[in-house]
Design a protein that fits this description.
The structure is a homotetramer of 256-residue chains. Chain A has 256 residues and is of the alpha/beta class. Chain A has a domain of 160 residues: Rossmann fold (3-Layer(aba) Sandwich). Helix content of chain A is 22%, strand content 25%. The first copy, chain A, has seven helices and eleven strands. In chain A, strands 2-1-3-4-11-10-9-6-7 form a nine-stranded mixed β-sheet. Chain A has a two-stranded antiparallel ribbon with strand order 5-8. In chain A, helix 4 packs across helix 5. The longest helix of chain A is centred in the middle third of the chain and has 13 residues. Chains in contact: A-B, A-C, A-D, B-C, B-D, C-D. At the B-D interface, strand 6 and strand 9 of B face strand 6 and strand 9 of D.
Chain lengths: 256, 256, 256, 256
């Protein structure tokens, strides 16, 4: 029997408590709502964590036992400890999947994996977002048609300060006149990374069926194939080499 | 008249002083040797900097006035200040070119732009390196034939922990049986990044004509087209939007 | 003195003669209008060719002497001879640049270089097109701001049946609700290919300054660095090989 | 119960009959040997086809019912009918997987999907090939370690005239001093394409466990997610458009 995929949904869980409107939309918290619909997939073992827990909820061996991490953050990126970010970063490069949502574009972990500004245009207003499916063959878009619409969302616009994605999955159209690469993948080390745009806290995007479908698909797609710890080995030759007159001397040097 | 390209060649300049053999190969320092052959190109204004200078030689407005930075480091990556790395990183994303040489694969600046381990296999021995030109059309390979050889070099082998390059330029063959993606480019923000493998301190690679040709080509290729400071602007709509009943309220919130 | 870049602008030149409205917009023909503004660049030697000329205007040694070919076709793709398409294809792989405009997405030459359907959604209506600059650092976007608008254009929408571009340059927003990857580059062999969306024959897009700027930039960007004829050589070993007991026999076989 | 993956292994089946040495290595034919080890995977329904069958063995509805096609050809690429190549091409773009082996780099179907020369260096001699795993996370490399060796193989060397792969999987080292991108993937439309280098007819590579493992992995990886027939639809607007005074006239035009 195959073991299940262990998923952790991480949320800031601040807006929901500070702003009654957000709390009314997400009474379980954003992380709780996402965990809720992921749990309908019997192949996923889903738990949650949030900023104000000890070690931001990701202490002990939690990360070591996580296959896919889902990340939502917005107003408190700087409060996430650098030590945790380094551990998540290492886990992704070893093989853990990472699904970054919405304002998570500015999270420390996403920026450290991209190596770029991750900046964008934005506007909180009354835009409709129409998300076009650019990759109908991709596992992440299965069950999604040519496009779907979110009736009201924060606008994110280009240019988006990311490295060229390995795969461009979605492009968004906004009423106010902008476009955005709203779904994209990157391989980083042995781990898969997916960024997905929707999910401003004042709109109910995570209650929408298509958004849920994409996130479930993405979590399944991001499951690890391997776990490879980092190493930078001194490797003996596989073929005969010419004699090395300085071999003895070298063996005592040991840079690196 | 076009202004010249301002190039800074940065070196650790430690091996050359600590190890007489290295000092004998590079009496000007590795950075000095590289600057020397770059200066033969009349379009380049070349200066140098090294680790043990104040601010590692890159204080004041030096970086602000640099078009292309060439980086060689090896045993002292950790001594480079995080503050300087952040400034170089910002400058690359704005548009500055960066040419990273050899053991610079493990420099803070290269790792922060790649977002990955940048690890590899290695061996100091008697390998010959044959560098195959995979991209004969590319500006970086002009004047280089199908391949060239370095009679003795440190071996670097795959897997190399980098994100998929935007352009793969060179692949190396080593006597001992390994291969390596020894020349590759990445666009990061508005800046161009080129990694080039050769240049172990105990071998005279930077005195070899083909290696020099590649580095001159790379510096020319990496010149900025633009300089775009980072911004993440709140952007007004370009098309009419539905009325926003909460507009007044929003205007007092000001997240971000 | 550097020799100039030899540019040939190819047009179908059918709509302009058959439809008085199109003829009124492009009295020089679409190809003639494009050639006209390219000629303002003193580094370009510009000529034109069209479908109903002998050999479609590209006979003799014209292609052999062309550095960059600009292609506009629409209703007569099938009339372009396969022999000519094969010659253009070979020239691109050798190093010639190719700029494909608008309905040229369905030309034989573009499809043969892409290897895909090159299909898309379309609508002739009253859409405005807003073209967003996704690559502010790229030579093709210099002088273009964050975006520019074409007041009325045919709509092209996703999904667009192309291989993932090497560089995504522009994404278009249309009034009717669609998005499109409207500027993209591909390296094919030693030649550069740029596809640019605008230019339906019933609208005056090629009279618009921003469209002209992009095409001039693209032609300059697409200039060859090399000219490498195709070969698939039997190559002697560069390193000693074990004895080959069947060497004599092999030398008489000569497959391939 | 999920339906099985329907795999067709296509071979030229000429060398095996014309050359007793090849026949002795592959008494089932190359296609038969490959089919044989694929059949050990209970999820695969495997059949074979070859050049000298009517319709090259791919007539009727065979292709319509094929999920993944494996292709080995060498001396008779030109004998494969253009009509069949067009049908295979269409099926790949709809979603069928394609695994191209060894000298299939010069097959009509591979060249038409790549759009490039697909040329390379080659030598029939006594080279050993060491195939390095560049993508340890990839489904195609599971069960393969850092590298594996083929004791004797035809050499293929760079430059290899392909478009930049979507994913570079393997790089080969040859005794005689060359390197080669020996495993690579491309998405073409809705179909996955994998090229894998080994398999010269005079060597027993397809009897080797690692080669078999890679091919089984590749066939599983290449399975379709969707089947999307080509279309280029005239699409009504999704958002209100300005009035179109020429709408009636347009409706009678119907280019395209």
């Amino acid at each position: 029997m195959l073991s299940n995929t262990r998923v952790v949904v991480w949320g800031e869980f601040r807006h929901e408590k500070a702003d009654p409107k957000v709390g009314a939309i997400y009474p379980l918290g954003i992380h709780g709502t996402i965990a809720d619909f992921l749990r309908r997939d019997p192949d996923l073992d889903v738990s949650t964590a949030w900023l104000d827990q000890p070690d931001h909820g990701l202490g002990g061996d939690v990360l070591e036992k996580t296959d896919v991490l889902v990340w939502w953050g917005h107003i408190a990126h700087r409060e996430v400890s650098d030590e945790l970010v380094a551990r998540i970063h290492r886990r992704v490069l070893e093989g853990m999947g990472l699904v970054v949502l919405h304002s998570g574009h500015y999270s420390k972990i996403f920026k450290s994996l991209m190596g770029t500004t991750c900046s964008l245009k934005w506007r909180e207003s009354t835009d409709k977002e129409r998300i076009w499916n650019i990759a109908p063959h991709h596992p992440i878009t299965q069950g999604i048609g040519d496009y779907f619409e979110i009736p009201a969302e924060e606008m994110y616009g280009e240019p988006f300060g990311i490295p060229a994605p390995d795969e461009l999955i979605f492009i968004s159209w906004f009423t106010g006149g902008e476009v955005f690469r709203s779904g994209a993948t990157w391989q980083r080390g042995n781990g898969k990374v997916f960024y997905f745009r929707p999910g401003h806290e004042t709109y109910p995007a995570y209650h929408q069926a298509e958004v849920q479908k994409v996130i479930v698909n993405a979590v399944r797609w991001a499951r690890p194939t391997v776990r490879v710890p980092d190493s930078c080995p001194n490797s003996p030759a596989l073929e005969p080499l010419p004699e090395d007159p300085e071999a003895a001397e070298r063996s005592t040097m040991g840079f690196r």
